[in-house]
Specification:
alpha+beta; Heat Shock Protein 90; 5-stranded antiparallel sheet; 3 helices; globular; HATPase_C_sf; Anti-sigma-factor_SerPK; transferase
Length: about 140
């Protein structure tokens, strides 16, 4: 197992740092560029959802991202926030037929990751994502 963890403020510009860490972490795992990009994009969407929907764009809240690599080919992502509890039944992708900006984050996350689930924590939310790659 290999892992890395990053704690950062809920500023949109910090998503770029998180993506850079994901890219560097996964590039050491012999994944192809498309898999790395797709993973970055999906986690980008998850962090953006925390910033927008949980923290209402407040820039001084805490987000913790942990990446765990489990040999031979599985990535686990843990995204922790300390905002109001999210009702998982309300977290759904919008219909693709609806042509409008936004609202595709959950669709992208579910398309990229094999598992997307909210884990119970005392304070805030913990989003667990897992993906098995074909290597």
């Amino acid at each position: 197992m290999d892992f890395i963890s990053l704690t950062f403020l809920s500023k949109s510009e910090n998503i770029k740092i998180a993506r850079s860490i994901i890219q560097n972490f996964l590039s050491q795992k012999n994944l192809n560029e498309q898999d790395i990009f797709d993973t970055e994009l999906a986690v980008n969407e998850a962090i953006a959802n925390v910033i927008e929907h949980t923290y209402n764009f407040e820039k001084d809240k805490i987000i913790k991202m942990t990446l765990k690599w489990i040999e031979p080919n599985t990535l686990e992502v843990y995204l922790r926030d300390f905002g109001p509890k999210v009702d998982p039944s309300n977290v759904k992708p919008r219909k693709l037929e609806e042509i409008r900006p936004g609202g595709l984050g959950v669709y992208i996350i579910k398309k990229v990751f094999n598992v997307m689930e909210f884990r119970n924590v005392e304070n805030g939310n913990l989003l667990f994502l897992s993906k098995e790659y074909e290597i």
